[in-house]
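Is this the right way to post structure tokens for a design question? Let me know if I should format differently. Anyway, here goes:
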């Protein structure tokens, strides 16, 4: 079967981001997978590990527009989507666009926003549009949301409902750097290696072309069946009270295509599904007895055979 060589621009993109996010090759790969698959990313991590820097580096690397929302309990839905304001000069209402009209949107500490404000992101993330006063406005393309939340602090936060969690294709943690990586990060400060020095390495048009190529990656019928069996197993497992929805099946399928494409292949392998399942499925399930979702998905990966 013919292979598809990963084009040079995506390698430049990966290297460009790695200049700022030291030693996080796998998280960068996962974020690029979600971007190419048309999904969104949830970063569950403590403050100060580079979540904002990752989002900014990605936006600069693709020559895209970047907007950041610092979520707080007093943040209103209109602060995200925009609002209509009366213009006395024209004697008409004028639409003032919110930060969702961008290419890369960072929703920082999303669980500090109220449920009403969190839900304002749902339509935009799924439909790529904002509806206000009966008028729908399409956001920019590509549109990619990176949301963060601190898994340790719970005071003054609002747990994301399952419907919101389900909108994120991938959930992951950057984690702390090791000693060598942290030293390399400090050395970069003295050499002037900052985000201000980053230059765009691909265009938005190239990125959209890559997204289309990812959708053409072949996923064999046996791998499709493996995805379905894995997802259906979450709906009947003894440790899970709420299993993965069909949206999760689609997300794992699309992510598998993008992951294979990033490896330079025009076809997917079962190992691609295994590499991604924890990051795509863990946050979509509710476990019983305080078990971690990642551990349950890992067990299912060992139990579900590939036909």
């Amino acid at each position: 079967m013919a292979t598809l060589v990963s084009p040079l621009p995506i390698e430049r993109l990966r290297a460009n981001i790695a200049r700022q996010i030291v030693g996080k090759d796998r998280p960068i790969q996962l974020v690029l997978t979600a971007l190419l698959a048309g999904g969104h990313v949830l970063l569950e991590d403590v403050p100060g590990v580079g979540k904002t820097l990752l989002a900014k580096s990605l936006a600069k690397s693709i020559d895209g527009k970047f907007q950041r929302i610092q979520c707080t309990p007093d943040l209103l839905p209109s602060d995200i989507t925009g609002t209509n304001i009366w213009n006395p000069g024209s004697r008409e209402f004028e639409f003032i666009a919110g930060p969702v009209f961008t290419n890369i949107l960072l929703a920082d500490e999303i669980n500090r926003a109220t449920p009403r404000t969190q839900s304002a992101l749902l339509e935009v993330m799924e439909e790529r549009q904002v509806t206000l006063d009966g008028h729908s406005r399409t956001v920019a393309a590509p549109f990619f949301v990176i949301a963060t939340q601190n898994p340790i602090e719970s005071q003054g936060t609002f747990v994301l409902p399952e419907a919101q969690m389900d909108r994120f294709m991938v959930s992951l943690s950057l984690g702390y750097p090791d000693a060598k990586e942290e030293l390399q990060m400090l050395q970069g400060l003295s050499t002037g290696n900052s985000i201000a020095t980053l230059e765009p390495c691909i265009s938005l048009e190239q990125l959209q072309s890559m997204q289309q190529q990812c959708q053409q990656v072949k996923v064999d019928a046996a791998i499709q069946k493996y995805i379905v069996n894995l997802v259906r197993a979450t709906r009947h497992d003894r440790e899970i009270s709420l299993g993965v929805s069909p949206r999760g099946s689609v997300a794992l399928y699309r992510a598998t295509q993008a992951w294979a494409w990033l490896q330079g292949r025009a076809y997917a392998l079962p190992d691609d599904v295994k590499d991604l399942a924890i990051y795509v499925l863990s946050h979509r399930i509710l476990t019983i007895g305080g078990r971690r979702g990642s551990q349950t998905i890992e067990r299912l990966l060992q139990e579900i055979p590939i036909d």
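Format looks fine. Someone answered above. Worth noting: Residues 246-262 form the longest helix (17 residues). The chain has a mean pLDDT of 88.
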